[in-house]
From TrEMBL:
The protein's name: Unannotated protein
Organism encoding this protein: freshwater metagenome
A cellular component term, taken from the record's GO annotations: plasma membrane
Biased composition (Basic and acidic residues): 602-620
Transmembrane feature ranges: 42-61, 68-86, 109-130, 137-154, 166-193, 224-247, 253-269, 276-294, 306-325
Cross-referenced InterPro entries: AAA+_ATPase (IPR003593), ABC_AA/LPS_Transport (IPR051120), ABC_transp_permease (IPR001851), ABC_transporter-like_ATP-bd (IPR003439), ABC_transporter-like_CS (IPR017871), BCA_ABC_TP_C (IPR032823), LivM-like (IPR043428), P-loop_NTPase (IPR027417)
Length: 620
């Protein structure tokens, strides 16, 4: 990760934050001017909602993990600033027995707010270590439990919080300009994080956690970072709310506020900072209109009936309509500054490597006596295998032979029951994301792309990881050109044609696999022309950087015409190893896998495969 990559993210964040803050400022200042004190209070409340929703979106939008607990951090921030900033003479009537002399302490508002945010950050780190060890619905349930627990603590820790009754006497110092200033800062952080290397890698894990991990992304660490930053953003909203209301209760930071903020985020588009702002504006304006209608106003001489709760009905209906019409929210993942996105991507992608800095690999991959059982059945049984620098090695065998399991062991997706995998004598790391950082990458039998990221971003994820591990990289643009994807750079990976998706997955692996690339059925689903093109592309890639390549495929012509050496796996054991010519004439292989007629048909391709020049000989 270079400084230029981060500077591009900061520049993007500043531009987007300003573009979003300006219309919010115009709208809220207009309300305040038109409606006096009530309009100003509504304006400040709207700005605080933007702070809360944008803060929550930093985690939810980038990680894809739903959170119902971030309002708990708003509560922690609100009560922390209230306890620290409220005059002692008032606190002594409510929390006279508070520990650490809190009843007698009073800080100025700004120091109190900063300490409150520090308390939020510490709480988020502690809680985040628990939440980030889980995934899917489990982590979401834990965040909901967090909300309930924090609310229970505030209600019952009367010595510090005052319990269920209002904590009053908090200085009411928030003005519209100060709230807008905090909002601008939070929007900047949210926008810059989304555009940053951290944000991009986290978005990759949102699309496919396993694929991101095998590309070297430390998913847990990035989620923890986003969780803490997001919690501080929500905490800032809580601090502002306390300093606006002057008196707070536990219910101010419980289910109602949680529902409203999540509704705003989902409505606008949780993957978009612009969506967070738009969701707040739509819900706020809609609530005001429907609240006015619910009060039974006189319109053109006609008295409308009073309809209590009409604004709540609006919120439910509009969410249902938007989810049916556009499940990703109004904005989806689009941003207000999308017209500059192409320029910004170039600024982020190109500095990660220099053209021509592709030093040739000299590493050697060794697997020794690998064993892996599933329910007592040996899927891999004592397999030893070697891939040297510059080699293209094949792995073939019948269905159920254990080929994909072996690839999972070699790439760290699975841990062997016994045996070792090493690169140049160094054992493979046990943590999955660290395996890719050694220079070993893989593809999957079922394509695993980051579907909502575009082609360029899919490759950029791995170049970001690679740039933190070593200096000798292939330029992302060179990879896209090598794999004939340069014209697709701006398209989302999920909408590519099947063959293009296969090539993109290999290009993504090649970006970080400077020593070894493991290909799991790369030509599955391709026609003969596409297979031939991919075979030449793999040869070109192998010749360019000298990485060892291990290929698993059922297309025997593809394997025999590409590989210099082939392993044959059957029932979890290696039954043969040799050149293509040796493999197709091996009786055990013919009986177990190829068949006599197929072996005779494939013999010419095998001969042509052995005539390919060795990459090492060309670059000795």
């Amino acid at each position: 990760m270079t400084s230029r990559t981060w500077s591009a993210a900061l520049r993007s964040g500043a531009i987007r934050a300003l573009l979003l803050a300006i219309p919010v400022a115009v709208l809220t200042v207009g309300w305040a001017a038109a409606r006096g004190a009530s309009g100003e209070r509504l304006a400040i409340a709207t700005v605080i909602s933007v702070v809360l929703v944008a803060g929550i979106g930093i985690f939810v939008g980038n990680s894809g993990v739903e959170s119902f607990g971030h309002i708990a951090f708003a509560a922690i921030g609100a009560y922390s600033v209230a306890i620290l900033a409220t005059p002692p003479e008032i606190k002594r009537t409510r929390i006279s027995e508070a520990p650490l002399g809190l009843a007698d302490i009073r800080l100025d508002v700004l120091p109190a707010a900063l300490v409150a945010l520090a308390v939020v950050a510490i709480a988020a780190v502690v809680i985040g270590f628990v939440v980030m060890r889980m995934s899917g619905i489990s982590s979401t349930i834990v965040t909901l439990a967090l909300l309930v627990v924090v609310n229970g603590v505030i209600n019952n820790w009367t010595a510090v919080t005052g319990g269920a009754e209002a904590f009053y006497g908090v200085p009411t110092v928030v003005t519209l300009p100060s709230a807008l200033g905090v909002m601008l800062l939070v929007l900047f952080v949210a926008s810059a994080f989304k555009s940053s290397p951290w944000g991009l890698m986290l978005q990759a894990s949102r699309e496919d956690e396993l694929a991101a991990s095998t590309m070297g992304v430390n998913v847990r660490l990035l989620r923890l970072i986003a969780f803490v930053i997001s919690a501080v953003g929500a905490g800032a909203g809580g601090v502002l709310l306390a300093l606006l209301l002057g008196a707070i209760t536990p219910n101010d930071f419980f289910l109602t506020l949680t529902f409203i903020t999540i509704a705003m985020l989902v409505l606008g588009g949780k993957r978009s900072t612009t969506g967070a702002v738009l969701g707040v504006i739509v819900v706020t304006i809609g609530n005001e209109i429907f609240r006015w209608l619910g009060d039974g106003p006189m319109i053109s001489g006609f008295q409308l009936p009073a309809l209590p709760g009409f604004s709540t009905l609006f919120l439910g209906v509009v969410i249902i309509v938007v989810m049916i019409w556009r499940s990703a929210g109004i904005m989806g993942d689009r941003e207000i500054d999308d017209f500059t996105k192409r320029w910004l991507r170039k600024a982020q992608v190109r500095p990660t490597a220099l053209p021509g800095s592709t030093a040739r690999s000299t590493a050697r991959l060794n697997a020794e006596n690998l064993v892996k059982h599933f329910d007592g059945v040996a899927a891999v049984d004592g397999v030893s295998l070697e891939v040297g620098p510059g080699e293209i090695v094949g792995l073939i065998g019948p269905n159920g032979a254990g080929k994909t399991t072996l690839l999972n062991l070699l790439s760290g997706v699975l841990q062997a029951d016994s045996g070792t995998v090493s690169i140049n004598g160094e054992l493979l790391p046990r943590k999955l994301h660290r395996v890719a950082r050694t220079g070993l990458a893989r593809t999957f039998q079922n394509i695993r792309l980051f579907g909502e990221l575009d082609v360029s971003e899919n490759v950029q994820v791995t170049t970001i990881v690679a740039s933190s591990s070593h200096d000798h990289l292939m330029h992302p643009q060179d990879l896209l050109t090598t794999f004939h994807l340069e014209s697709q750079a701006g398209r989302k990976a999920g909408v590519l044609a099947y063959g293009d998706q296969r090539r993109l997955e290999i290009a993504r692996a090649a970006a970080i696999g400077r020593h070894f690339v493991l290909l799991d059925e790369p030509v599955a689903g391709m026609n003969e022309v596409e297979s031939l093109e991919l075979r030449e592309t793999i040869r070109e890639l192998n010749g360019l950087r000298g990485a060892g390549i291990l290929v698993v495929d059922h297309d025997l012509s593809f394997i025999l015409g590409l590989c210099q050496r082939i392993y044959v796996l059957d029932a979890g054991r290696i039954i043969a190893v040799g050149t293509p010519a040796e493999i197709v004439s091996n009786p055990a292989v013919i009986e177990a896998y190829i068949g006599a007629s197929a072996a005779q048909h494939e013999q010419p391709d095998a001969t042509r495969g052995t005539e390919e020049p060795q990459p090492d000989e060309d670059h000795s």
